[in-house]
Amino acid sequence: MNHKTKPLPSKLHLSPLARRSLAGDAVTRIRRAIIEGELAAEDALTEDQLAAKLGVSRVPVREALIELEQEGLVEFDARGRSRVRAFTEDDFEEVFSMRYSLEVMAARVVAKRLTQDDVQDLEAMICQQAATKDLTELSLLDVAFHDRIIQAARHRPLAVCWETIRSQIEVWLARAHRAQSKMKLSSIELTVPGHRRLLADLRSGNERKAENAMRLEMATWREWLPA
Amino acid sequence: MNHKTKPLPSKLHLSPLARRSLAGDAVTRIRRAIIEGELAAEDALTEDQLAAKLGVSRVPVREALIELEQEGLVEFDARGRSRVRAFTEDDFEEVFSMRYSLEVMAARVVAKRLTQDDVQDLEAMICQQAATKDLTELSLLDVAFHDRIIQAARHRPLAVCWETIRSQIEVWLARAHRAQSKMKLSSIELTVPGHRRLLADLRSGNERKAENAMRLEMATWREWLPA
DNA sequence: GGTTCGTTTATTGTATACAGTGCGCGTACC
DNA sequence: GGTACGCGCACTGTATACAATAAACGAACC
Questions:
Q1: Taking all residues of chain A, what is their mean pLDDT, rounded to a whole number?
Q2: Residues of A in contact with B161 (CB under 8 A)
Q3: Contact, B48 vs B61, CB < 8 A?
Q4: Which residue of B has its CA nearest to A168?
Q5: Which of A87, A114, A206, B53 could disulfide-pair with A91, CB 3.0 to 4.6 Å?
Q6: Which of A69, A71, A73, A3 is nearest to A34 (CA)?
Q7: CA A15 from chain center: how many Å?
Q8: Does B9 touch chain A (CB under 8 A)?
Q9: How far apart are CA B118 and CA B124, in angstroms?
Q10: Lowest mean pLDDT segment, chosen from A19-28, A164-173, B11-20, B194-203
Q11: How far is B164 from A61, CA to CA, in rounded Å?
Q12: CA atoms of B130 and B132, how far apart (whole Å)
């Protein structure tokens, strides 16, 4: 033991060192702008213009664009120019089929690893969902619920893969809401019992059961799809 | 039609516009160094030092490190310092379980989309494998084979997910070879017929058949694993 | 002697400056 | 009128310079 400074109240847990960098903020803000539709498909993302709008230099913007490319929100052409990616309905089909595979895998993994904390969190989230009457809010809670399941899997490559499609799912959701899509009101009544059943099967510890429950959950989502 | 320049020999297909940038080269070279073990686990990746070694400035290096983080080869600590990620055996277990899910999905997708070109390429690759007597070379050809299958799926999110684990697979392979691992010579005799069977089932157009063939292929790989 | 405080140093984060490049537009020439 | 050439503009790619911060070391004080 080299340094023996005073032991510092052990309960006190400070903010988790959020690596606050302009580049990180830029990622968040540009991502949000794309999801909200503030930046439209095919819009040219000129580094100078973005930098000016964000009040920073081009460097953080460049780094942000690289990350957003990985999330599938931004595209670079052969000359290095970036633009907001234009999603076709087929693109979303692909994203959701990817989601299907990832979540089924997550269910399988989670079945063996679910902790008491996970269960408590998930139950609390279901209660929150039950209290909601707004479809937009519900869909956000739903994504958060699935986020939490992925987190519960404690499986790094899975989490990384999930992050490559998460934003695209949000793009679709936001777009669907703006378009007053066909998401039915009945969804509210379906979501909560669906999640309860899913959680029950995840808790069973039975991988097959968990997988199948997730397949069912994904199938109900499937109906909300564009085409 | 705005400009009507002369029609330029249609067969002539130039190099695919490889976006040659120092940043891109840096990604390639640092990745290679990590895979080959030239940069060892936990090694600090100082931007200045890397820049000096590569003969460029820090900017391309920074951008390269961001990309390599997404490939799982590089880690950043809370203060922004990067280092070569240290893989545990559990990490590799996770990577290969992820690979399993992705490839099974790929098989399912490919079953419906395989073209004549795909088949020709894959067959040619199998022949190449059959001609090889070197285990290291064979494992590279094997990865290339699976790469080609992913490509044949023509499924963007799948390809992106695959790229998040591909380098890590290569790390494991290179490490295993350096350690004179338990990869058996019999692998050579097993690989080629295995791939032939797999290709046959991918061509069948039957999703279930294709999935199961891939599960089998993955299971044989499984034996080469560390633990 | 050990602890604490300043100073130095190493390294990242950000800004700015500069170089290179393709594209559009105008112009001249046929 | 159309085609080819050349110039300028709008961007990106890269380098360099500067600011900020935390670790490392050392010195002074108890």
A1: 87
A2: 98, 102, 161, 164-165
A3: no
A4: B157
A5: A87
A6: A73
A7: 22
A8: no
A9: 10
A10: B11-20
A11: 23
A12: 6
Domains, chain A: 22-84 (1.10.10.10), 89-222 (1.20.120.530)
Per residue in A89-137, pLDDT tens?
999 999 999 999 999 999 999 999 999 999 999 999 999 999 988 888 8
Q: Are B160 and A97 inside 8 Å of each other by CB?
A: no
**Can you tell me the distance from the alpha carbon of B188 to that of A198, in angstroms, rounded to the nearest whole number?**
44
Chain A residues whose CB is inside 8 A of the B104 CB are: 101
Which tokens sit at B188? 């050579």
CA distances, B184 to each of A16, B136, B189, B224 (Å): 47, 11, 10, 8
What is the dihedral sign for C-alpha A34, A146, A92, A138? negative
Are residues A47 and A65 in contact, defined by beta-carbon separation less than 8 angstroms? Answer: yes
Burial class of residue B213 in the structure, from the number of CB atoms within 10 Å of its CB (0-12 exposed, 13-18 middle, 19+ buried): buried
In which band, very low, low, confident or very high, does the pLDDT at B3 lie, cut at 50, 70 and 90?
very low
Provide the percentage of residues in chain A whose pLDDT is more than 90: 73
Is the Cα torsion angle B119, B124, B127, B133 positive or negative in sign?
negative
Select the residue of B91, B160, B168 nearest A72 (Cβ to Cβ): B160
- Given a contact cutoff of 8 angstroms between Cβ atoms, the answer to whether A61 and A50 are in contact is yes
CA pair distance B68, A161, nearest whole angstrom: 15
The 10s digit of each residue's pLDDT in B121-157 is 999 999 999 998 888 888 899 999 999 999 999 999 9
* Nearest nucleotide (C1') to alpha carbon of B49: C11
- pLDDT value for A3: 33
Q: What is the pLDDT of residues B68-100, one digit of tens each?
A: 999 999 999 999 999 999 999 999 999 999 999
Tokens of B150: 């992913």
> Would you state the structure tokens that stand for residue A139, as one six-digit string?
């869909």
